[in-house]
Design a protein that fits this description.
The protein is of the alpha/beta class and 1071 residues long. Helix content is 40%, strand content 13%. The strands form 5 sheets. Strands 3-11-4-10-9-5-8-6-7 form a 9-stranded mixed beta sheet. An 8-stranded mixed beta sheet has the order 14-13-12-21-18-15-17-16, with helices on both faces. A 6-stranded antiparallel beta sheet has the order 25-26-24-23-22-27. Helix 21 runs antiparallel to helix 26.
Length: 1071
C-alpha cells in the first residue's frame, strides 16, 4: 500500500481564510495577492459515481500485491464528496479511493488465492467504489510492474491468430492491451515488440476506431507501413513529404507529424483509440526528444498508449510519468531474455576468444587473449613495423580473413558496424574478390530486383556514380548502408538484405535503429566512436542496440558478436563497462522553443505553464504536487488553530521579543563554541546558562552546569510543575527529574546539551561556594539525589544576573569581527531583558504560539515556492523567450499571438522567427522561383559545410545580406534578454551553405552535376532538397493566409521546380 498511496485524510473542501496580518508578514502586497489566491478555497476532487457515468474514464484504485493483500483484507471508508469528473474537466490529481489499512465488512481485495488467474501484481478487479468516506489517499506511483505469472487469453478471444508460440512478455503485453490499459514494453532488439503493436491496432479496428503508429525516423515509418499493409486492410502513412491514404484506420507517421496534428486540433485525434510509440527511448535524443514529451502531454486522456522501447534502467520512473500525465495506471513489462542468445567474441590475429555469454564475462579468456597478443608482439620485435594506414596488407586484409572465416563456418549473413561512412565504403571497395553470390539464382534475383527498383529513374540518374558503385557491390552479395546514401539505394540494400541476398553488409549504427533486419553475426570494426565532441568507447546502450542485430529468431540457435581488433586488444575496464554496465537511462530533453510557445498560446488546449509542469523534466515536482497541496492545507489549518495572542500589556511585544531571541541565538553559537575551550575556564560546573528548546521550554529557562563532557553538557534546570512534558530535543536526555518539597517546582537533570541549545552564558555562578565545590566533583554514575535537590533549591533561591559573561583577557587576539559580534550580542541582550515579555508569566505560552506561527508561515512560503509556476526549471527561459516574442511583435501585451505570431505557427520545421520576419519584410517579392529556393535553403540545412560557392545573382546577394542582418538582430536581442546561444549554433539556424546547390537544382541541373559542386554526400543533399520542398509548401500555405496570391503562386512554382527526378523517387516500401 505505502508504495502506491499516501494519506490525504486531512484534506477537505473547507475554506480556511488566512488573516491579512499573517499574509503581510510573508511579503509585499503582490505576494499577498498571490497567497490569497493560493490559500483560498482549494478544490478537492470528490467521488466519481461510476454507475451514473456510462462513458466515465477508467478509475484507478490501489493495486495491491500478494504480500499487502495478505495483510489487508478490506477498507474502512467514510464520506465521499459529490464532485463528478468527466473527460471535459479532466481527472483529479487527488483521489478519494480509500482510507487507512483497515477494513469494513463486505469489501475485499482479490488475493492471490481468490484470483482464478493467480495474478498478484495486476489483479483482475480493482477496489469497488466506496459509497461513504472522509479519508483519502493520494496516489504516489502510477506504474505497476508485471513480473507475475502469465495470464493466457483464450484462443477464441484472440483478435489475431499466431502461427507460432508467443513469448511470455508478448502474452502479458497483449493481455493488458486487451484490457484497455496503458502498456510500456521494454525488450531487446529483435525481441518481437511489434507483435504487441499489431495486436493493439487490431483492438482499435475491432472497436471501429483508429490507431496511430509513430516512429522517430521516416525510414522506419516506411518499413512499418509496408509490414502493416500485409496484415490490415486500411493502412495509410503521413510523413513530411508523403501523405498516402490519410483517412485509413491504421496510420503510420513520424512523431513530429502527430505533434502538429495535436497542435492544430485535427479531427483525426477524436477518432483514435490507441497511439503506439515505437523506439520510445528516442525521447532521450538531444534535438528531437522534446517532441515525444509534447505529444504525450497533449494526447487526450481517453486514449490508450502503447510504448515500445529498448531495455532502459529507469523504465518504472518513465512509466510513472506517463501514468501521472495520463491519469491512468501504466503496466510495465520488461524482459531481458533474448529470443536468440548472444555469444560475444574478441577477434585478434585470426583467433577468436569467447568473451561473454549467458554465463557472464569470461575474464580468463581476456587474459589468454592478452597474453596471446603480447607473445605475437614480442616475436615481431626488431622487424620492420607494418604501416598503420588501411591497406590490403593491414586492417582490411585481416577483416576480409574474418569474413572468409565466417563464411566457412556458416555464420553469414553478417553486419559489420563502423562509425565512419567513408570507412564503410572503403572496406567494401578494398575487397574486390569478396563474392558471396554463389548461385545463378541469387544473382538473377538481385539483378531483377535492382532493375525493377530503378525502372522509374531516368538514364541520367541511373548513371549516378554512387548508385553504380553500390550496384556493383550488390551483385557480389555485398552491401553498404549509411545516411550518406541516396534513399532509394538504402532501401534496395535493406530489402535485398532482408531477403538473404546480401550476405555481408558494411553499415553505420543508423542501421540498428528500428529496422528489423537481423543477421547471423555482427562484427564491430571498432568499439570507439566520435560523438561530435570526443572520441570515446561505445556506451552499453549503443553496443547492445547494434549487437542485438545478431541472431535470427527461429533460424539461429545463437547470435555471434565479434569485436574486431587489428593489433592490440581493448582495455579490460572499457570492455566490462560496455558489456556489463546498465544501459543509459531515459532523460528528459524538454526545452522551450519559440514554436512551442506560439503553438500553445494560439490555442486553448492548455497553458504553457501546464505543458511545462507535465513534462518529464518536472516529473518529481508533479509527483509531489498533491502532497504539497495537502501539506499546505495542514499548515493553514494549523495557523488557524494557533489562535490570537492576547498580550496583557496591550501590544504585540511577543513578536518583537521572539525576533530578538532568534537573532540572539543564531549570533551566539560561534561565541559559545569559542568560549567552550577549557583553557578559558568559563563553561564549567556551577556556571549559570540560559537554555532553550529542551525538555519543556521553547523560550528560555535558567540552568546550572553540572558536568562537562567534550562538546556537550549536563545541566540542572528548575521549572513550574504544571509544565507539560514535551520532547527533550535532538540528542538531549532527561536523566532524572523530581519535585521540590512544596511540589510547585520540579527540577530536571538533562544530559547532551550542545552549543545550539544555549541562549546566554550568564555572568553568574551558584552563590553557595561549598555547593559549587560539590558540583565540581559531581559524577553522573551513581549520583546522589540529595545533592541534586540542594542544587535545585539553591538555583531557585539565588538571584540570577541577566548580564552576559565578561570575555576573558586571553581572547584579546581574536579577530575584530568576534569582538563586534559580542558587542552586538550585549546590545540585543539588553533589549531582551528590558522587554516586558522577559519576566512575564505568559512568556512561554505566547512565545511558543508565536514560534509555531512563524514556523507555519515559513513552511507555507516554502511550499508556495514549490507550487508556484516560477519553480519550474524552464520558467526563466520561457519568460525570456516570451519577452523576445513580445518585442518582435509576435505576441501582444496580453501574450496573445499577433498575426505575425499566428503565421509563425505554420512554419514548424525551421527557424520560424527569422523566416517570418523575412516574409513580413517582403524579401522574397523581387526573387524568381530558383532564387526563392536558394534563399529558403538557409532554413533547412543544419549541417556544417565548408563549401565555398558563388552567389549566382545580385538579387540573391542583397536578399542574403538582408536576412543575415535580421538574424543578427534577433541574436543580439536574445542575448540582451538572457538567452545565451553559442553564435556558431545560432548561425546554423540560418545557413546559406546550400544556396548555390539549391539554386542550380531549381534551375533544372541534373543530380550528377549537382554532386560535382559539393563535398557533401548524396544522401545529405537529397534530405536537404526534400526538406526544402516541404518548406516551400508551408510558405505557400502561409502566403494564402496572408492573402498574398503572388507569393503563393511563386512558392507553387518553386515547389514544382525542385520536386523531380531521383530526389523524389517513390519509396520502394510504398510501391
Amino acid at each position: 500500500m505505502d508504495d502506491y498511496w499516501t494519506s490525504d485524510e486531512e484534506y477537505s473542501d473547507k475554506e480556511l481564510p488566512l488573516p491579512t496580518e499573517i499574509l503581510k508578514k510573508v511579503g509585499n502586497s503582490d505576494k499577498v495577492d498571490q497567497l490569497l489566491q493560493l490559500y483560498g478555497k482549494i478544490p478537492v476532487p470528490g467521488s466519481i459515481p461510476i454507475a451514473n457515468l456510462d462513458n466515465s474514464p477508467q478509475i484507478h484504485r490501489p493495486n495491491i500485491d500478494s504480500r499487502t493483500t495478505a495483510e489487508v483484507q478490506s477498507f474502512d471508508f467514510d464520506e465521499f464528496d459529490t464532485n463528478v469528473y468527466t473527460y471535459d474537466n479532466g481527472a483529479p490529481e487527488l483521489y478519494n479511493f480509500g482510507g487507512q489499512t483497515y477494513i469494513s465488512d463486505g469489501l475485499r481485495f482479490k488475493s492471490i488465492t481468490d484470483n482464478k488467474h493467480d495474478y498478484p501484481k495486476c489483479p483482475d478487479e480493482y477496489i469497488k467504489q466506496p459509497k461513504d468516506t472522509k479519508s483519502r489517499l493520494i496516489r504516489l506511483n502510477w506504474a505497476v510492474k508485471d513480473d507475475g505469472p502469465v495470464v493466457e487469453i483464450p484462443d477464441n478471444e484472440l483478435l489475431i491468430e499466431y502461427p507460432f508460440k508467443l513469448d511470455d512478455f508478448q502474452k502479458k503485453a497483449i493481455y493488458h492491451v486487451s484490457r484497455g490499459k496503458h502498456v510500456f514494453v521494454a525488450a531487446h532488439t529483435s525481441a518481437g515488440k511489434t507483435i504487441v503493436a499489431e495486436y493493439a491496432i487490431a483492438m482499435a479496428l475491432s472497436k471501429g476506431r483508429k490507431a496511430v503508429y509513430t516512429s522517430p525516423i521516416k525510414a522506419l515509418s516506411n518499413q512499418k507501413y509496408r509490414e502493416f499493409k500485409n496484415i490490415f486492410d486500411s493502412v495509410g502513412i503521413i510523413t513530411g513529404d508523403i501523405c498516402c491514404n490519410p483517412a485509413a484506420s491504421c496510420l503510420v507517421m513520424t512523431t513530429e507529424v502527430l505533434r502538429n496534428l495535436l497542435y492544430r486540433g485535427d479531427s483525426l485525434i477524436g477518432e483514435l483509440d490507441v497511439v503506439i510509440f515505437d523506439e520510445v527511448h528516442y525521447i532521450s535524443d538531444l534535438s528531437r526528444g522534446v517532441v515525444w514529451e509534447e505529444v504525450i502531454i497533449m494526447l487526450p486522456k481517453v486514449l490508450r498508449l502503447l510504448m515500445l522501447s529498448a531495455t532502459v534502467p529507469n523504465y518504472m520512473e518513465f512509466s510513472d510519468w506517463i501514468g501521472r500525465t495520463m491519469q491512468r495506471e501504466v503496466v510495465a513489462i520488461v524482459t531481458k531474455k533474448r529470443p536468440t542468445p548472444l555469444v560475444h567474441y574478441l577477434h585478434i590475429h585470426s583467433k577468436n576468444f569467447l568473451l561473454f555469454n549467458s554465463d557472464g564475462f569470461n575474464q580468463n579468456a581476456y587474459h589468454q587473449m592478452y597474453n596471446f597478443a603480447k607473445t605475437l608482439k614480442n616475436k615481431t620485435k626488431g622487424k620492420v613495423q607494418r604501416p598503420k594506414a588501411i591497406t590490403p596488407e593491414g586492417e582490411i586484409q585481416k577483416l576480409q580473413a574474418l569474413i572468409k572465416s565466417l563464411e566457412q563456418n556458416d555464420k553469414l549473413p553478417v553486419i559489420l558496424f563502423s562509425f565512419s561512412r567513408a570507412k564503410c565504403e572503403t572496406y567494401a571497395k578494398c575487397m574486390p574478390k569478396l563474392d558471396l553470390s554463389k548461385t545463378q539464382s541469387e544473382r538473377s534475383k538481385i539483378h531483377l530486383f535492382i532493375k525493377e527498383s530503378l525502372e522509374t529513374l531516368s538514364d541520367t540518374d541511373r548513371n549516378i556514380p554512387q548508385l553504380k558503385f553500390i550496384i556493383s557491390l550488390l551483385e557480389r552479395g555485398v552491401g553498404v548502408h549509411h545516411s550518406g546514401l541516396l534513399p532509394i539505394i538504402k532501401e534496395i540494400v535493406e530489402i535485398l538484405f532482408s531477403r538473404g541476398l546480401v550476405k555481408v553488409l558494411f553499415a553505420t549504427e543508423t542501421f540498428a535503429m528500428g529496422v528489423n533486419m537481423p543477421a547471423r553475426s555482427v562484427v564491430f570494426t571498432s568499439i570507439r566512436k566520435h560523438d561530435g565532441l570526443k572520441n570515446r568507447i561505445l556506451t552499453s546502450s549503443e553496443y547492445t542496440q547494434m549487437a542485438g542485430r545478431a541472431g535470427r529468431r527461429g533460424l539461429d540457435s545463437v547470435g555471434n558478436v565479434f569485436i574486431f581488433c587489428v593489433d592490440s586488444p581493448p582495455d579490460l575496464q572499457d570492455l566490462t563497462m560496455m558489456l556489463i554496465e546498465k544501459s543509459t537511462p531515459l532523460k528528459s530533453r524538454f526545452r522551450i522553443t519559440y514554436s512551442m510557445l506560439l503553438q500553445v498560446m494560439s490555442r486553448n488546449h492548455m497553458s504553457i505553464e501546464e505543458l511545462m509542469s507535465k513534462s518529464f523534466l518536472e516529473r518529481n515536482r508533479a509527483r509531489n504536487m498533491p502532497v504539497y497541496k495537502r501539506d499546505m492545507f495542514r499548515r493553514k489549518r494549523e495557523l488557524e488553530s494557533i489562535g490570537e495572542i492576547i498580550c496583557p500589556f496591550g501590544a504585540p511585544t511577543i513578536e518583537q521579543y521572539m525576533d530578538l531571541q532568534l537573532k540572539f541565538r543564531e549570533m551566539l553559537v560561534p561565541i559559545t563554541k569559542l568560549l567552550w575551550n577549557p583553557k578559558f575556564n568559563i563553561i564549567t560546573p556551577g556556571r549559570l546558562l540560559r537554555l532553550h528548546s529542551i525538555a519543556y521550554v521553547s523560550s528560555y529557562c535558567t540552568g546550572v552546569v553540572v558536568t562537562t563532557n567534550g562538546d556537550s553538557l549536563t545541566c540542572l534546570i528548575t521549572l513550574p510543575s504544571e509544565y507539560k512534558i514535551k520532547d527533550g530535543g535532538d540528542g538531549v536526555d532527561i536523566v532524572y527529574s523530581a519535585s521540590l518539597i512544596d511540589q510547585s517546582i520540579s527540577y530536571y537533570l538533562i544530559r547532551g546539551i550542545e552549543a545550539k541549545y544555549i541562549s546566554g552564558i550568564l555572568d553568574s555562578f551558584l552563590a553557595d561556594g561549598a555547593l559549587n565545590d560539590t558540583i565540581q566533583s559531581f559524577k553522573l554514575d551513581g549520583f546522589n539525589t540529595d545533592i541534586l535537590e540542594l542544587v535545585a533549591l539553591s538555583l531557585v533561591s539565588c538571584e540570577v544576573s541577566d548580564d552576559l559573561v565578561v570575555l576573558p583577557k586571553e581572547l584579546k587576539n581574536v579577530p575584530l569581527d568576534t569582538y563586534e559580534r559580542f558587542i552586538t550580542l550585549r546590545e540585543i541582550n539588553r533589549k531582551l531583558t528590558g522587554n516586558q515579555c522577559h519576566k512575564c508569566s505568559m512568556r512561554e505560552e505566547h512565545f511558543e504560539m508565536s514560534l509555531n506561527r512563524g514556523n507555519c508561515l515559513k513552511e507555507i512560503e516554502e511550499i508556495s515556492s514549490c507550487i508556484k509556476e516560477e519553480s519550474l526549471e524552464a520558467y526563466p527561459e520561457m519568460m525570456a523567450r516570451v519577452n523576445v516574442l513580445k518585442q518582435m511583435g509576435f505576441l501582444d501585451s496580453e501574450n496573445v499571438p499577433t498575426i505575425k505570431g499566428r503565421v509563425a505557427t505554420y512554419i514548424t520545421t525551421t527557424d520560424e522567427i527569422t523566416l517570418t520576419q523575412v516574409l513580413f519584410q517582403n524579401i522574397l517579392k523581387e526573387l524568381d522561383p530558383p532564387e526563392c529556393a536558394a534563399i529558403l535553403s538557409a532554413f533547412i540545412s543544419t549541417d556544417r559545410c565548408n563549401d565555398e560557392a558563388p552567389i549566382p545573382t545580385l538579387k540573391l546577394q542583397n536578399a542574403r545580406d538582408n536576412i543575415f542582418e535580421i538574424h543578427r538582430k534577433i541574436y543580439i536581442l536574445q542575448n540582451s534578454l538572457g538567452i545565451h546561444t553559442p553564435i556558431e549554433d545560432f548561425d546554423l539556424l540560418c545557413n546559406f551553405s546550400l544556396l548555390f546547390i539549391c539554386y542550380q537544382w531549381a534551375c533544372g541541373s541534373p543530380f550528377p552535376e549537382i554532386m560535382e559542386m559539393t563535398t557533401l554526400q548524396e544522401g545529405n543533399i537529397v534530405r536537404a532538397i526534400i526538406r526544402l520542398e516541404e518548406l516551400c509548401k508551408k510558405v505557400e500555405h502561409v502566403a494564402i493566409l496572408m492573402q498574398d496570391g503572388e507569393l503563393a503562386d511563386k512558392m507553387q512554382k518553386t515547389s514544382d521546380a525542385i520536386r523531380r527526378d531521383i530526389v523524389f523517387a517513390t519509396s520502394l516500401y510504398l510501391k
